[in-house]
Amino acid sequence: RTELPAPMISRKEVSIWAILKNCIGKDLSKITMPVMLNEPLSFLQRLCEYMEYAQLLTEGAQQETPADRMKYVAGECYLNNVTQSYNFEILPNLAFAVSALASNWERLGKPFNPLLGETYELQRDDYRIVCEQVSHHPPVSAFHAESKDFKFHGSINPKIKFWGKSVEVNPKGTVTIEFPKWNETYTWTNVNCCVHNIIVGRLWIEQYGKMEIINHSTGHVASLTFKSAGSGAKNLHRVEGFVKDANETNLFFLYGKWTEFIKCCSAESYTQYLRQGTRKNDDYDGSPNGTPKKMFSKLNSFKLNSFRSLSIQDVSELHLRYLLRIASFQSDSYPPMEQEGDIPKSDSAYSIDIPDSSALWSCKPRPSNCNEYYQFTHFALQLNAKDINMKPPLTLCPTDSRLRPDILYLEDGNLDGASKEKTRLEEQQRHTRKQRKSTNSDDWTPRYGQLIFLFQYLLSIPIYRWFKNVYNPHTKTDDWQYSGGYWDRNYENADTIF
């Protein structure tokens, strides 16, 4: 598809402040929002947008040696500058991890919260992925993608908070990549996202925080810092970091913008670049908001605990904003400092281009009409499309997001229909949850009816679902693992949740 059935409905008449003014500091995932603030996709479909650049994994995994895998992805010119014994296969994963965030830029519509048991599938020639909402409180979305070259899976438990002028999204959860041929496993967690100018001005977003990608087979680690705009917006969208071996020796320096590109050079080239004095912001010390060293040392003397005891009612709005700005330097609990006015512009004087660098990834251009269709990428435009062979329940699970009436109404431009269906589905889900509580179990079985569910529960037989809760030995945390069976197309006994 090159467009949606109807253009995006204007949000100019919606007062976001009227909705959020009593929600400062609260988790917005539990607050009901008007459908006008949504985009016509489920959060499960947003998870599938990871796969837009799946060829990075395919190309990296197909190479016979670490050097060849890197050569295929990063280009032959870069290999002439590095030692052949370095571990290169982590670099396609780095580019893939950053590329997954590019579709977020200017995507300001909220995806629909998935219903418990809701699923979404996507098949392409070189991979397939299935997602499921495995928990409602707290909301947890699990996904599993596979191809002949890789496995990509994980779970996300998004936390959304309102801070007065901005909304912060913390996508808690672990993401895992496996290369079975090489017996390698990589894990990382995503960085935070902040939506600015919620009350006044044009909305804009930034990603910020640290992303650490670990190769659990070789001990290699990639540490990336997604910088907030900072003073003068000089760090807007910038990403920088190093790839280190098991001995913590810097091998590569990666840099770029998560909205545009990622480049790579050797650690030696980066060191030489610094010695030549060509970097413009030399007083930057790696602090999360791009703060100069002298100012950061002064702010470091403040104690965060002295502010936490204050309630919002005890301080004026200006005083609270001042306290949050100071606290944000020492704690990940607060979003970056607000930028006054419209979307800040990144100063090209602070962009760097190191000699002998190679491009690992560049962002695909968006459709020329994306402003009319929720800033969707070409990939996102296809997510609600149904293939002629998708006929539930024979060849499409009846719980698939493509079948949600509220999403379909919004995509068609029917705001009233979308609002009514959204309310109906939310009330239906609350009623179903009460019924499950009456049986003293919050377990969800998307595949079997109530009689089989009760039979399994009484006999203590594990409840079948597309995903199961397991212990992740790499991260030493609870995780969700694909149970198998989804692609067998046995959906005859699937419950209807829409």
Protein topology:
Layout: H1 16-20, E1 38-42, H2 43-48, H3 55-62, H4 66-74, H5 76-79, H6 90-99, E2 110-112, E3 119-124, E4 127-135, E5 140-146, E6 151-162, E7 167-172, E8 175-179, E9 184-188, E10 192-196, E11 204-215, E12 221-226, E13 238-244, E14 250-257, E15 261-266, H7 267-275, H8 293-299, H9 305-308, H10 317-327, E16 358-362, H11 378-381, H12 405-411, H13 415-438, H14 450-458, E17 467-472, E18 477-482
Parallel strand pairs: 1-2
Antiparallel strand pairs: 3-4, 4-5, 5-6, 6-7, 6-8, 7-10, 8-9, 9-11, 10-11, 11-12, 12-13, 13-14, 14-15, 15-16, 17-18
Helix pairs in contact: 3-4, 3-6, 12-13
Output the keywords.
single chain, 498 residues, alpha+beta, six-stranded antiparallel beta barrel, two-stranded parallel ribbon, 23% helix, 24% strand, globular
